[in-house]
Amino acid sequence: MDTRSEATRERDVDRLQDLLDRDAIRHIQIRYAWSLDNHRWEALKEIFLPDAVADYRGERFEGLEAIVAKCASSLEPADGSQHINGCHWAQVDGDKAIAGCYFIATKYIEDTPGGDTFIVGGKYIDQMVRTPDGWRIAHRLLEQTFLDGNPEVEAVAKARWAARMQSGG
């Protein structure tokens, strides 16, 4: 026999839903990192809303296609990348949430003069929306905390991408 009050049971359900929501949001943030490093651009449809906005290091990208194009042009020319995130948090309010996590993103291009890696550290701040298909990012802000390594890696990636696009890529 359950001796808990109806109010206690409702609070338990609310707490459980909050935990499920925060875990689903964390999963979206982790899937984003996995999608980038594995060049799984189609997976970004399960992460962002079609009309999402991303502000990456002072550049604004509006719509899923623009976000995918930015990610692909930055990471496909690299020999490797690794996005690691942690310290996830989320404040859920019904079907909306503000969430974030810290990240370290490393891009690697072998034999780049001056060093093979370029590292960006910072945090993502996301405005999330619950959809019938699950949580999605409506707006992502990348707040850069630090840069390390060789910025020439970025220049080599841009040059490789431009050459690929010129050749019909």
What can you see in these coordinates?
This protein has 169 residues and is of the alpha+beta class. The chain has a single domain (6-166), classed as Nuclear Transport Factor 2, Chain: A, CATH 3.10.450.50. It contains 3 helices and 6 strands; from the N terminus they run αββαββββα. It has helices spanning 6-37, 64-75, 152-166, and strands at 48-56, 59-62, 80-93, 96-108, 117-131, 134-149. It has a 6-stranded mixed beta sheet. A hairpin with an 8-residue loop joins strand 4 and strand 5 (117-131). The chain is elongated and about 70 Å long. The protein starts with 5 loop residues before the first helix and ends with a helix.
What is the number of helices? 3
Structural class: alpha+beta
Strand line-up in the sheet with most strands: 2-1-6-5-4-3
What are the secondary-structure elements, in order, as H or E?
A: HEEHEEEEH
pLDDT under 50 segments (min length 5)? none
Proportion of residues in helical segments: 25-40%
Tell me about the largest β-sheet.
Answer: 6 strands, mixed
How many discrete domains?
A: 1
What is the alpha-carbon Rg in Å?
19 Å
Q: What is the CATH class?
A: Alpha Beta
Do you know the CATH topology?
Answer: Nuclear Transport Factor 2, Chain: A
Average pLDDT taken over every residue: 95
Strand content: 35-45%
The N- and C-terminal alpha carbons lie at a distance of 67 Å
Shape: elongated
| CATH architecture field | Roll
Would you report the number of β strands? 6
What topology emerges from the helices and strands here?
Elements: H1 6-37, E1 48-56, E2 59-62, H2 64-75, E3 80-93, E4 96-108, E5 117-131, E6 134-149, H3 152-166
Parallel strand pairs: 1-6
Antiparallel strand pairs: 1-2, 3-4, 4-5, 5-6
